[in-house]
Amino acid sequence: MANKLDTLTVNFASAPFQRAFNTSLSPVVLFSILDHYLRRNDPQTKVVGALLGVRSPDATEVEIRNAIPLIYDGEVDKEHYQNMVELHQRVNPEESILGWYTAGQGLTAATTAVHGFFAEDVAPFQPIQVTVDVDALFKSSDMGLRAYASAPVGFASKSGDCLFLPIPCEVKYLDAERSGLDMLASAKSNENRTASLMSDMDHIEITISKLQEMLERISQYVDSVVDGKVAPNNAIGRYIMDTVSVVPKIDSSSFEKMFNSHLQDLLMVVYLANMTRTQLAVAERLQLLAATTSTTN
Questions:
Q1: Confidence class for position 156, pLDDT limits 50, 70, 90
Q2: Among 42, 102, 118, 265, which one is least packed by beta carbons within 10 Å?
């Protein structure tokens, strides 16, 4: 007699919301999670917090922008959670609750209860859970970052009957955050793990050096393909063609003139900023001197 196979039915939300989606996470969120974990009480083995961000109109892209640490002792403090979310949305009204995070232990038996708590604020979408494995933080390329979404299992409608499915999640940063990340990364080469702030001129010098290095690498790759040393790659060729096509065609003398003009504007802004800072310092000292003199008289 043939064995009867048990059928496992997984329904990923309702029909309008079962589209696959990608999740991106800001580096600020990752730092906030790690800071929350480092400041935990000694008996705690994990921390829990809320994730806030925005969804695209078609719900295929989810951007996690902020994280709120919560009080968790077996269950989430609802009053603290509501107050923190209300205060955050006063500053960022466009952001909404997307899910929750945990650092320390991964998926446990208590995960479904916390997941159900956040499902009320995320409905009709499924809440996203982000887990950070602190032990694998410096041992893996993905920094121990995992993201999950739940789906009900079978025909039962109980909150605990769900299956956690991994979803794509990557760390994305803005151009304004890139300089801060580069500065933090530069501290790893120092013995005291510190990095000093660079001036605008130093940033320009480093940027030009990196640009020159990338141009040399591209030039070497193109020469190797032309000489037959490296097999051609159509995707890389299209990227190079698209990049070169947006570069304006100007002669070297005009480019040098434009660059010097922008450089002079930058130096003028730096000079005016320093003058303003000096005048404010002088005014503050004069005001302090006047207050001291009047008190003495």
A1: low
A2: 42
